[in-house]
């Protein structure tokens, strides 16, 4: 069994000057990521209105599948025209960890 996590740091548009506006950008991204059957949530920069950190976790029987799912998630976030992905951090935990 392998567990993989990814945290995507995204820059939101300049018109997101309130937490309500921030949610209007983050919520559709979170909903779109759920189609990959992953656990996903906003996990950082909660009080910053211009930034968001979205965390994703996946469990699979092999490391290759974990990598494929995280690749798909990263492509989805990077492909959103309304946000700019600043960084993506990943971790893979195997049976021996």
From TrEMBL:
InterPro entries xref list: DUF503, TT1725-like_sf
Q: Name one Pfam family in it.
A: DUF503
The record's annotation in Gene3D superfamilies points to: TT1725-like
- The name of this protein is DUF503 domain-containing protein
Q: What is the organism lineage in this UniProt record?
A: Bacteria, Bacillati, Actinomycetota, Actinomycetes, Micromonosporales
